[in-house]
Amino acid sequence: MELKIAAITYNVNRQKPVQDDIICWLDFEELNDSQIVCFAMQEVPHAEMLKTTSNTWCEQITDWMKDKSFSLVNKICLVSNMLLIYLKMDLLQMIDQIDERWCRSSLFGTIGYKGTISSRVLFRSGISIVFIASHFFAQEKYLRDRINQYKQSLYCTFPEIDCPKKHIIWLGDFNFRVEDFPDSQQLLYALNKLDDVDMLTKIATSHDQLLKAKRFKKVFEDFEEGIIRFKPTYRIMVGSGKFDQQRIPSWCDRILYKSNKNSNISPLLIKQYCSCRRITLSDHFPVSAKFLLGISSQINILTKDELAVWPCYFEHIPRWEQLIPLFCRLTIPSQFWTKYSSNFDWIGLYSSSIEFINKPLNWVYLLTCPLDESGKYCIEFPSLNCGMYRVGYFCTKKKCLQGLSNPFYVKEEPNF
Fold this sequence. Notes:
IPPc domain-containing protein; IP5; 6-stranded mixed beta sheet; alpha+beta; about 425 residues; about 15% helix; Endo/exonu/phosph_ase_sf; about 35% strand; Immunoglobulin-like; phosphatidylinositol-4,5-bisphosphate 5-phosphatase activity; Deoxyribonuclease I, Chain A; IPPc
């Protein structure tokens, strides 16, 4: 079978999200058809990072993805940079571990306004996918600084992990510019005269700093990129979608990828690489890529008893009464407990859609849950409102769920 992955990068230019623009941006078949979706966002408003506003990009995107049966499994922030990773619900039980890294580049590495963040998602089948989001130094003259920043950011690829099933998707606002054009008007004239998308590829190949540096093996030497058949994504006049006449347009926003070279392992295949010119909220256009990854059929096997695929498992939770506190039991095998569990692990109560793994409706530390005579953890939550719920076990060492209950319904209290 094939795993479908969508990767999207967008420099939002400190703009607040607008719901109509979110719908215009995300309502396309390639995203809805994917099983994993990664968002890399740059220049996110400080109010969102400081949590002083309820209108956030993360909330708006998560609300949209929830309706498509996606759950947010990891969110990483570094000053104004954000990385979001969503998975379809039926893939949650196949994740073994999630790891994170970051690299600050601004002010000699002391702050991360310009920097790199990454998340490594390890599946139980041994497949490892590393998602990396970067915001490199701006302006054409700082090419050497961008190259140095790339080299520093290689730490975020988890280079010490030599896994034959390792794949990397690196995306972001790399800020590599178009050069060797005397002024913006010449390039704008050339872009406006284009009738053939192949000419865009020729311009990018001849004048794009990233592709030229890549040919000289200075950056991304082992990475691949889809063919550029879209117009430059920067600098755009906000609200109009037209190029800034005073700036040389450039392909700043890019997505590259890499698979370990192993003849027995299917590599990442890029199926689409494009920009979305429908959204004009920022001075950048977002860029997206669609990938296919051939995987072992075991990654998506579901037995009749769905809970059997989790290393730790809950007893079946029946339909519950609204006035009765919720009670459930969790089994953690001794071998798993010895290697991975700790008293800092927690049990989370979620709505059945599980919008964000790290943000349950309620939670309790595993430390507070007593063991019964059979060695099962006994978990209790206060009485719940009417609705559909699930209970999950979050392992702090693995940074992901390691057990999830069946969906159960809490019914309204009877009227007497």
